[in-house]
């Protein structure tokens, strides 16, 4: 009789708690599988991140005559030296951003040009902006906007840094909201420059200045 009561009690207990016990076991198995999957994903992500940190992308001139550009991995070109067309291309970008005064893009142009400047020039430029707030003043003023048109870039030969190049360009002045040009000036910028070693080209620089063009002294003269 006691054995029968025990068996009935055991059966009642199993019917009441057996399903929860079974589900709990499967839940533990699922949690272990998910934990292992997360560990595996974390390891894979860390490996991808380490590779991405060392990835280098550079824009190269593929044709000396046309100046067309393709994207290649910088890591495969440790001894790469930019050709004349490549230097002209990035000098074009720098001078355009450095001298443009267009309200809707002024903050962007100011930031982009800074990627080409030496640390000393960046500090000097930022100090001037912080003391005069000329960007904010220009945005609020009725001063003419300046659009840049590049004429000719001359790089020449160079055996040691700093090298020198000159850029002829035109400043086209426009009143805000008007398409008709108010006035025009011809200028020449004399730039001293060097190229960063490949390891010093940071990931943040690559979209703007992948060759590490670093401009030091800038001398300007107005034409007639």
Keywords:
about 220 residues; alpha+beta; Nuclear Transport Factor 2, Chain: A; 4-stranded antiparallel beta sheet; two-stranded antiparallel ribbon; 5 helices; about 45% helix; elongated
Number of helices: 5
Distance between the termini: 121 Å
Uncertain ranges: 61-67, 70-77
Mean pLDDT: 79
Into which percentage range does the β-strand content fall?
Answer: 25-35%
Shape: elongated
Q: Superfamily at the CATH H level of the domain at 81-222?
A: VirB8 protein
Q: Sheet with the most strands?
A: 4 strands, antiparallel
Give the helix/strand class: alpha+beta
Number of beta-strand segments = 6
Can you tell me the CATH class of the domain at 81-222?
Alpha Beta
Query: Widest sheet: strand order?
Result: 3-4-5-6
Oligomer category: single chain
* Radius of gyration from CA coordinates: 32 Å
Question: What's the order of the H and E elements?
Answer: HEEHHHHEEEE
Range of helix content: 40-55%
């Amino acid at each position: 009789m006691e054995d029968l009561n025990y068996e009935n009690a055991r059966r009642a207990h199993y019917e009441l708690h057996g399903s929860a016990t079974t589900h709990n076991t499967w839940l533990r198995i699922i949690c272990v599988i998910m934990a292992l999957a997360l560990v595996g994903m974390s390891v894979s992500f860390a490996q991808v991140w380490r590779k991405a940190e060392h990835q280098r992308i550079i824009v190269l001139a593929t044709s000396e005559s046309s100046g067309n550009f393709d994207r290649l991995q910088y890591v495969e070109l440790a001894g790469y030296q930019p050709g004349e067309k490549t230097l002209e291309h990035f000098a074009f970008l720098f001078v355009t951003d450095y001298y443009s005064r267009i309200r809707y893009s002024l903050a962007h142009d100011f930031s982009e040009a800074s990627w080409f400047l030496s640390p000393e020039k960046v500090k000097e430029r930022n100090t001037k902006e912080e003391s005069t707030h000329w960007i904010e003043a220009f945005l609020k003023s009725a001063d003419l906007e300046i659009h840049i048109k590049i004429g000719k870039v001359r790089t020449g030969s160079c055996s040691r840094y700093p090298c020198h190049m000159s850029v002829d360009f035109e400043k086209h002045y426009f009143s805000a909201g008007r398409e008709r040009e108010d006035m025009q000036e011809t200028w020449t910028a004399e730039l001293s420059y060097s190229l960063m070693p490949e390891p010093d080209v940071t990931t943040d620089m690559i979209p703007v200045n992948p060759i590490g063009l670093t401009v030091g002294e800038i001398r300007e003269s107005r034409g007639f």
